[in-house]
Structure formats: C-alpha cells, structure tokens
Amino acid sequence: MTLLQTAPVPEAAAPPAEAGDALTLGRRIRERRTQLGLTLEQLAQAVERAPSQLSAIENGRREPRLPVLRAIAQALGATVDELLADEAPSERAALEIAVERAQRGSVFASLGIQPIRVSKATSDETLRAVLGLHQEVERLHRERAATPEEARRANTELRAEMRGVGNYYAELEAAAAELLRGVGYAGGPVSQQLIADVAQKLGFDLHYVTDMPHSTRSVIDRRNGRIYLGSDVPTRDARAPILRALASVVCGHEEPRSYGDFLRQRVEANYLAGAVLLPEAAAVSVLADAKQQRRISMEDLRDAFSVSYEMAAHRFTNLATERLELQVHFMKAHESGTLIKAYQNDGVSFPSDALGNLEGSIVCRNWTARTVFAQPDRFNPWYQYTDMAGGGTYWCTSRVEKAKEGMYSVSVGVRFEDVKWFRGRETPHRTQSFCPDERCCRRASSELTRKWEDAAWPEAATPTSLLAALPTGTFPGVDAHEVYAFLESHEH
C-alpha cells in the first residue's frame, strides 16, 4: 500500500541538516540514484512514495521527513549521514546548487525575471554566466544598501559587542602570542626586525615603494607573497602597518561582504597589531606593577614598548577589564570637537546620534578631550575631573597628537572610585558638564546672542563627506582600479 492510498500520518521530521541544505541533499540523492541506474519511478516504488514527491526532494523543494529519508538511504545503499553531508557530490552539482540557490533568493525575485530550468542539457558555461550575473546584481544591491545609516548601525552593533566582552578578544591574544613565539620574542619592545621576521615566517617579503595607491596604507599581494608599504613609512614606524596588513592572513579574512564585515576586520587588524607590539603577558606585568604602586600611566606604557600614545591607550582598554579589573573609557576627538573613536564600559555617557552611534557626535567643551586643546603645555599629560549631570564624576588623562587631518586628542578615563590606581589623580583641575543640555556649552550667552544674532552670517565649511555617497566597493574607499594597476606594475 502506498502513501497515496492511506490517510496522511504525522511523521517525525528529519534532523536539521546542519551539514547540508535541501538543495545539497537533493543533489546527493539524485547522484546516488543515477549511479545505481535507478529511475525516479523505481526509487519512488522502493520507498513507497509518489514520483512527484521524490522529484520535489531531489530538486531541493521539499525536505523529507526522517522515516522517508531513512527509506531513501536504505534503497540507495547509503546512510542518512552520507546523504546529509554538506559537500556537493560533484563540481557540476555544486554549480547547479549555486544557480538554484541564487534563483530562489530575494534579489533574483526582485528582478521579475523567469528563472531558467536547470537540467542536464544546460551547459556549464550557461550556469556560470547566470551565476556571475546574479553575483554582480547582488553586489550592486549591497552597494546601494550601503547607506550611511547602514554603516552607523553596523558600527553601533560592533561597539556594543566590544563593550560586552570588555574589549578583550582571547583568540587574537593567542594569535599574537603564537606569532611572537615563532620568532623568538624574549621580552621588551618588539623590534622592527622581529616584525620583519614575522612577515617572512608567514611567507611575505616587505617592499617599500614610492607609488603607493593614494587610497591605501598598504597593499598585500597574496599571490606573490609581498607586502607593499609607502617609502615614507620607515622614517616613522613600519611595525604597525606591517602587522595590520598581515592580520588579513593571520585572521583568515575574506573579502568583506558588508560594512559590518569591513569594520570588524579593521578592528581585528588594529587589535592584532597592538597585541603583538604590546604582548599581553609583558604589558600586564607592567600595568599590574603600576597598579600596585598606584601609578598607572599611558605614558609609561607607551615608553615601555616604544609605541605611539594612541596605541598604548588602545591597548590599555584591551587589558584593563579582563586583566586589571578596571572599567574604562577611551576617546579620540578632533580639535573641532568631533568624536572620532570611542569605547566605554564604565558607564560614561558619550554623545551619540539617534541610532546610538558615537563617532561623528560633538564632545562637550568641558570634557577633558576638549579642554586639553587649550593647554599651553603639550609635553606633559593633562589630567582633569569632570562632574557629569546625573552621572557621577569621572577622571581623565589626555594628550594632543597631530595628524594630516589636524590636531586630535587621545583620552583615557575611569570612574572616580577607580582613580586611586592612576598617576595624576591629585590634579586640581575640575569641570562640570550638563550636556546634552545645550545650555551647557553649545548655546551662546543671552548677551552675545542679542548682540550678534541679527548681524552674523557665517559661511559653513561644509565637509565634503556631508553630501558624498558612502565609499563603495569590496574595500570601501579603496580605488580597486588603481590597486590592481599598481600590483600589475610591480609583479615583475
């Protein structure tokens, strides 16, 4: 008696195909059936099912229940696990699966085009052409969707994740430690020679050139095992750029599929560079000793490992919570007051937009990150307490650095109860902040407003990014044509 001759009986569902989806399962059943020389009708009869039902299973349009899957496996002389394997049974089957999956997706459906019927008569060239066209349409859709809002949301989600783990990533710490072990690191500052040895051990030669593509910091040629850096890099410090380039290899990065991927890869590259240049065990030893003496200082951490102040401050945020049991905040702010980078897990209330994104917001004029610009002494760090409206008191240490975009401040801070561990806690400098209340620092006094509101007509220095589209491409902001031409010119 067949299934069609009886009332339907509820069956146990097949286990979720973690190792494969319905399309792959269907192709594996079809491949096995044809290898055994069975027709669809013969297999259907063997498992007491209608041929149309077996056809839907083979075409990936229906997932079989567990009893049916067992019956099919038995009839084909296979196991259920074999049929559920995740790899396609052949290269041709993999191509068919990719095309079928593409045609059933939302992007293809939005085109309003009738999908092609994939059969034995469909040539490989036709399938590859359909798949290539679909991938290009998907890429264009991703670019069109890459609005500033999407990037800001991705950034906000990433910052929330970083806060949740205390900005500490054990797998990246382990990767950095393994790299250093491989080149015989014995303590102290990590030299440029050791970084060159790391690159060589990973199969890469360093090349300093004068014609670096203007939109890049470095270019890595995976085919020929080369890392290209601008010829001006050695006059500063080549270690961090080399490590950021190698991060794509160490972390197994693939071409980013979204702004979320792009931002995450950038964070991982910066983290790995910091974890190598300020090794965890050595840096924690320095910081733990400083904490015991109640003299934690970003300057001392910077000097101990011969890195930039910004990298030392970043690295401190990686280790502070996990290894020192301190909650902290970090800010990088442009002299205009624009927040460039920010991280916190100590409860400080950063300025943010409606989406919760921090970067691009304006920092209160009374915060350390802004008041430091008014200090004539740029040799010593600036320490300050700030009383937040309804948010307690925070202590912060800040320094002014210079970049091609202008001056910016790098600040690290903690809650009042944790300042006892830091050098500079005795500072007399103290301010109050009532932001986001505009009366705190954004609104001119009544006297000045009355005097100038009808006479002033300033021309805004509109940033070019205000009306520009968000950079597109696999690597946002990078001119792919320029990069490929560069690699071609240096290949031989």
From TrEMBL:
Signal peptide: none annotated. Residues 7-19 have a biased composition (Low complexity). SUPFAM superfamilies: lambda repressor-like DNA-binding domains (SSF47413). Residues 29-83 form the HTH cro/C1-type domain. Gene3D superfamilies: lambda repressor-like DNA-binding domains. InterPro entries: Cro/C1-type_HTH, IrrE_HExxH, Lambda_DNA-bd_dom_sf, TransReg_Diox_bact_type. Keywords: DNA-binding. Residues 1-20 are annotated as: Disordered. This is Helix-turn-helix domain-containing protein. It comes from Leucobacter allii.
